[in-house]
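Methods — Computational structure assignment.
A single polypeptide chain was analysed. Its primary sequence is given first, followed by the predicted tertiary structure written as structure tokens.
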Amino acid sequence: MIESKLYIKYRVNGKVYVEDLYQNEHYYIEGTVTDDGVKLLLTPKVKMELIDFELRYTHNTEPGERFFVNGYQAWTTSKEMVIDDKQKGLGVITHFVPTAAKLAALTGDYYFGDYSRKAGVFHSFTYTYFRNETKVEFYGSLNERTGFTIFKCDMKKGTFAVRKELEGVVIDKQYEIINVVKIVGNYDEVFDKYFEMLNIQKPRIDHLAGYTSWYNYFQKIDENIILRDLEGIDRAKDEVNIFQIDDGYETFVGDWLDYCDKFPNGMKYIADKIHEKGVLAGIWIAPLSVQKVSRTAKEHPDWLIKDANGKPEIGVFAWGGAYTLDIYNEEAREYIKHFFDVILNEWGFDMVKLDFLYSQCIHPRNGKSRGQLMAEAMDFLRECVGDKLFLGCGVPLGSAFGVVDACRISCDVDLKYKGKFYNGLALNNELPSAQNAINNTIFRRHLNGRAFVNDPDVFFLRDFNLVFTDEQKELLADVNHLFGNVLFVSDDMGKYDDKALEIAKRSFTKSNAMIISAEYVDDEYIVIKYLDEGVKKTLAFNIKTGERAK
């Protein structure tokens, strides 16, 4: 990574400067640059506000080469791209409807990402690779704590750049501005070496299988529904090891400990009932979010992140809108610590699924970059969770490395295989759909067992409250089983027929398959080749229809 051109943008005393120099009257940059990576430190001579930084290279695109795009956060579309593909940003409709644009932009990198919509122009977060057949040229950040690292390429022009997203960073002392490694090898070799260099310990768990309540009832759960579905897991008691309560047990998002008459005996009672089945008790929380109508938001507006006008900033558009607790507010921190203590230690839940975490870093603040805000939020949440299990969701993945035990690596699935009508409007890259979930599950497989245990979201086997064919249901189950190790259904298993129960048991078991290759052969067909108990197998299907190749 030696032959590069530098670009830096910063502000001093209110004036913006753009430079291509390693030193001037305001700073000097030094470090290590080799064929295998680059590490640079910036030492300011005056107080500086950083805005952007890039190292720019040439990369001549080879015939058949693919560039991996790792999307901004857990839900964001991630896949291998070829030279004629386009990386989509916000949908066209958002250009004409400002409110839609603002809401659609919350979940992704649309405020600071580069979406040119030109063929062959892509960007990837934290790590990326160029792949040609079995040869992989990998680039990965060794430090996301100072800011998100974004890898950019234009396959038609033959350019490649390493960008550090530094908006809002204010420094008066030495700052590590970039730390990137280059690794060449086959697919598994480069990821093994990368996570070894990150010094991330092997996940404490290797497989979770069971139930989560969300995709059948959504927020319309109550004690009777949960206890009924808990009885249903007895039919697969040898395969199930966890039962999770999702959104809907609280009065409002943010008021986690308030009494809810839908659960008259309280949540400790539910956790105890789950433990009686001999399985782990899991519960969903959006720990940084407070619904606009919540008691917490009304009573403690000073705990909330504010926008440029001093008003509470919308961090999540779900639930009619939610604000975000500021982790740098000491009273808010104590509140968060308290409800975790009650949920984990008094109620007795073993695992928390923590959702909508990206909301902490939508905009930079306090002289910190988005990446630093997210890293410090994850550190704080890990402290709150302690030695209980932490399943991350809606989080920039690099910030989750080495912090969570398991992590969602796909968008939400949907009750319709093809997603809702607005998916056709392509509002953003985080919209729920089984197709996008399957895509991400396959192309983020390299994280499973290295960064954490992969959660590909649920599969379905029920025959009601669902718009899936039997073939689509089995495809989703098979992909999750092959590539994931957090395997959930949201079905009342007590209502399964014999075939559904057989598929559930098979899908819940840990796969020992070795993936040989997985790639798009055209815009619609994915072909996966793998070894299963030493036998070569192929799974080929049309991702748009969910039909297998004949």
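Note: The chain is about 20% helix and 30% strand.
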